[in-house]
Specification:
InterPro entries: CtaG/Cox11_dom_sf, Cyt_c_oxidase_assmbl_CtaG. It is a single-pass membrane protein. By secondary structure, this protein is mostly beta strands. It has one domain (about 5-90): Sandwich (Ctag/Cox11 (Pfam 04442)), CATH 2.60.370. The protein contains no helices and six strands.
Length: about 100
C-alpha cells in the first residue's frame, strides 16, 4: 500500500460450530509506532457480527496509511505494517468501549 492511497482488504471469519455465534472484532497494528499513521475509513471492528453455524464470511476494511508516514524519520526502516484482528464471542448485554483517550 502506498501512503496516501486507499486500500481495501478482506478478513475471513468462520463459525466452525453448530450454533450461531455473535462476536466483536478488535484490531492491532504492528509495529506499534506505525499505528498512528493507520486510518480506517470503514471497518467491521467493534461492531457485533453474527455468524450462523458453519458460515464463513469475508469482512472488509477500507483504509489508508497517512502520507506523513513517509516523512517520519522513525518510520524510515519500516517497510511492513501488519494489521491483525481478533474475533471474540460477544457476551449479551456487554458493550466494548470504543478506543480513544479520555
Amino acid at each position: 500500500v502506498v501512503p496516501g492511497e486507499t486500500a481495501l482488504a478482506f478478513y475471513k471469519a468462520k463459525n466452525p460450530t453448530d450454533k450461531p455465534i455473535t462476536g466483536i472484532s478488535t484490531y492491532n497494528v504492528i509495529p506499534f509506532e506505525a499505528g498512528q499513521y493507520f486510518n480506517k475509513i470503514q471497518c467491521f471492528c467493534f461492531e457485533e457480527q453474527r455468524l450462523n453455524p458453519q458460515e464463513e464470511v469475508d469482512m472488509p476494511v477500507f483504509f489508508y496509511i497517512d502520507p506523513e508516514f513517509a516523512e517520519d524519520p522513525k518510520m524510515a526502516k519500516v517497510d511492513l505494517i501488519t494489521l491483525s484482528y481478533t474475533f471474540f464471542e460477544a457476551k449479551e448485554g456487554q458493550k466494548l468501549p470504543l478506543p480513544g483517550y479520555q
